[in-house]
């Protein structure tokens, strides 16, 4: 990977290549430009502040009055970093741009999102699905959201039959994410589950938590409060230095216990024989099945702290011929006790440790990528070069923002993981 230096944060000849609304370029008037990706976001989002720079639209009026711009218009953005890596996106204008209160200068705040978000409101999914959740996600994206973007869908292990019931496509995809087990962890079935649906400039992704945790780092970043002298002082073994760094311990023990992050109980009721089954899960028993980014998870020796109740899904939507469906009428369609609470635990473990850093612009990084981060150990000897073994190590990029102005070009990363300590 190319080394990224702080020289990229000064005045530049790179940055915005294109920002258009219905084919009319407005990038000369952009004051600030922010591009966002997030694991918890169904679409990439772009915000921009535009000052009327004299660009004329139809009829010789300014762009927003001449088109006119009322929201819903097609937009295109293109921007690059100092290494020549370019991000291109076709979006639509989500809002009717607000304007400043001056009569001589128009200031407009723009919000742009992916077309799939708009299509999601226009269609419903009425059909039945049989088979793997990963196949259902592909079908929903291509047949209902009509996306032509690159799809990076991780294969799942356990089938999930269900009716769409006229729900929105993205709702169903996020629902399936909570009922999915990665095929690569078949030996850990019954101990881990949970996927994320998200979008980057590379396409739409459906990935398991354990896959994200198990990746090799895409970049190696260090924060040492020492100027890198335009790349000459980046320590060996690292790709860039962080310009700012803030850590946040998100392991609120009381809250984590309330949501069952480490120990929970599931009660299943069988409506045919009126029997119920109780299962208790403790993350400490699953440690060998988890793919951890850090060294240890702060698991507490405790009994269950949350209980969920479910009606067992027996005899509904069996696959096959009529005779085969009759034979399967007493089988459980989806063994929720082996998946649902395990997903609850993994989702709530992921954000235990969180840090926020700002680096020189680097458009090779995306949400879902893994990076290695190190910071100096806080010791009395200021010349000590030891790294902090508790904070340092692998992290997943949970959210990012590429920030562009005429004077600087930066990338802010929110990094998370499910454990503490450097491996």
What would a concise description of this structure say?
The protein is an alpha+beta fold. The chain has helices at 63-66, 115-120, 133-144, 169-177, 209-213, 253-258, 322-327, 340-350; strands spanning 16-21, 24-25, 30-38, 45-51, 74-80, 86-93, 98-99, 107-113, 128-129, 151-153, 162-163, 195-200, 203-208, 219-222, 240-241, 244-249, 263-269, 276-282, 307-311, 313-314, 332-334, 353-360, 370-374, 393-404, 409-417.
Provide structural commentary.
This protein is α+β, with helices and mostly antiparallel strands. It has a domain at 253-349. The protein contains 8 helices and 25 strands. The chain has helices spanning 63-66, 115-120, 133-144, 169-177, 209-213, 253-258, 322-327, 340-350; strands at 16-21, 24-25, 30-38, 45-51, 74-80, 86-93, 98-99, 107-113, 128-129, 151-153, 162-163, 195-200, 203-208, 219-222, 240-241, 244-249, 263-269, 276-282, 307-311, 313-314, 332-334, 353-360, 370-374, 393-404, 409-417. The strands form 5 sheets. It has a 15-stranded mixed β-sheet that branches. A hairpin with a 7-residue loop joins strand 7 and strand 8. Helix 3 (133-144) runs antiparallel to helix 4 (169-177). The longest helix has 12 residues, at 133-144. It is flat. Residues 9-13 have low confidence and may be disordered.
Q: Report the count of strand segments.
A: 25
- In this structure, how is the largest beta sheet organized? 15 strands, mixed
**Morphology call:** flat
Radius of gyration: 25 Å
Distance between the termini: 22 Å
Would you tell me the overall average pLDDT? 85
Task: Show unreliable segments.
Answer: 9-13
Structural class: alpha+beta
| Helix proportion | 10-25%
Number of H- or I-type helical stretches: 8
Strand portion, in percent?
Answer: 25-35%
């Amino acid at each position: 990977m190319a080394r990224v230096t702080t020289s990229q944060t000064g005045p530049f000849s790179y940055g915005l290549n294109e920002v258009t609304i219905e084919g009319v370029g407005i990038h000369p008037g952009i004051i600030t430009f922010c591009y966002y990706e997030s694991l918890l976001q169904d679409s990439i989002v772009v915000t921009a502040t535009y000052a009327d720079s004299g660009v004329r639209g139809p009829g010789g009026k300014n762009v927003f009055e001449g088109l006119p711009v009322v929201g819903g218009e097609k937009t295109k953005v293109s921007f690059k970093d100092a290494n020549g890596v370019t991000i291109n996106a076709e979006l639509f204008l989500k809002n009717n741009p607000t304007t400043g209160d001056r009569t001589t200068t128009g200031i407009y705040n723009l919000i742009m999102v992916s077309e799939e978000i708009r299509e999601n409101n226009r269609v419903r999914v009425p059909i039945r699905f049989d088979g793997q959740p990963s196949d259902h996600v592909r079908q929903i994206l291509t047949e209902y959201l009509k996306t032509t973007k690159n799809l990076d869908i991780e294969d799942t292990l356990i089938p999930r039959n269900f009716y769409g019931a006229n729900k929105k496509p993205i709702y169903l995809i996020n629902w399936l994410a909570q009922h999915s087990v990665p095929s690569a962890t078949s030996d850990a079935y019954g101990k881990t589950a949970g996927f994320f649906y998200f979008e980057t400039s590379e396409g739409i992704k459906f990935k398991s938590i354990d896959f994200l945790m198990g990746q090799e780092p895409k970049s190696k970043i260090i924060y040492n409060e020492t100027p890198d002298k335009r790349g000459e002082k980046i320590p060996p073994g690292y790709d860039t230095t962080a310009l700012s760094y803030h850590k946040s311990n998100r392991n609120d023990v009381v809250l984590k216990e309330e949501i069952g992050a480490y120990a929970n109980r599931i009660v299943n009721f069988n409506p045919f024989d009126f029997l119920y089954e109780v299962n208790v899960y403790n993350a400490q028993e699953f440690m060998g099945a988890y793919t951890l980014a850090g060294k240890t998870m702060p698991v507490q020796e405790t009994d269950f702290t949350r209980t969920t109740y479910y009606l067992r899904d027996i005899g509904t939507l069996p696959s096959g011929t009529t005779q085969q469906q009759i034979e399967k009428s007493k089988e459980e369609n989806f063994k929720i006790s082996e998946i649902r609470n395990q997903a609850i635990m993994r989702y709530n473990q992921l954000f235990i440790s969180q840090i926020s850093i700002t680096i020189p612009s680097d458009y090779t990084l995306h949400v879902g990528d893994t990076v290695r981060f190190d910071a100096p150990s806080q010791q009395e000897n200021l010349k000590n070069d030891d790294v902090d073994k508790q904070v340092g190590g692998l992290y997943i990029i949970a959210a990012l923002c590429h920030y562009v102005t005429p004077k600087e070009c930066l990338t802010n990363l929110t990094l998370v993981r499910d454990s503490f300590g450097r491996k």
